[in-house]
C-alpha cells in the first residue's frame, strides 16, 4: 500500500489530516483493520499504544506525514517508533 503511492496521495490531499483532527483515525488505528494493513508486529504495537493517541491529538503525526518522513520510513521497512 505504501509502495504503491496510494497512501502518499491520500496524505498529501489533506484527507488524512482532517481524519486525525476529527479523532476518527484514532478509532481506525485501534481496530483490527490496521493489524491487517500493516502486517508488522512492531507497527501494531505502536499504533495500539497511548503514545500514538497523544501524538495524533498534538498534531505531531500530521507534520510527519506532510514532510514525507513516515512514507520514507515505511518504504525502508522501519517502524515509526524507531525514529
Proportion of residues in helical segments:
over 70%
Biggest pleated-sheet summary? none
Number of strands: 0
Oligomer type:
single chain
Cα-atom radius of gyration: 12 Å
The shape is globular
Topology:
Elements: H1 6-13, H2 15-22, H3 24-29, H4 32-38, H5 41-47, H6 50-58, H7 60-67, H8 69-75
Note down, in words, how this protein is organized.
By secondary structure, the chain is mainly α. 72% of the residues lie in helices and 0% in strands. The longest helix has 9 residues, at 50-58. The protein is globular, with a radius of gyration of 12 Å. The two termini are 21 Å apart. Residues 1-5 and 71-79 have low confidence and may be disordered.
Task: Summarize this entry quickly.
By secondary structure, the chain is mainly α. It contains 8 helices and no strands.
Feature tags:
83 residues; mainly alpha; disordered N terminus
Amino acid at each position: 500500500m505504501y509502495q504503491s503511492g496510494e497512501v502518499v496521495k491520500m496524505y498529501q490531499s489533506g484527507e488524512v489530516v482532517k481524519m486525525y483532527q476529527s479523532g476518527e483515525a484514532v478509532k481506525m488505528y485501534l481496530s483490527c483493520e490496521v493489524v491487517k494493513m500493516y502486517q508488522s508486529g512492531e507497527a501494531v504495537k505502536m499504533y495500539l499504544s497511548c503514545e500514538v493517541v497523544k501524538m495524533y491529538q498534538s498534531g505531531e503525526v500530521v507534520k510527519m506525514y506532510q514532510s514525507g518522513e513516515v512514507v520514507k520510513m515505511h518504504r525502508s521497512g522501519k517502524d515509526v517508533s524507531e525514529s
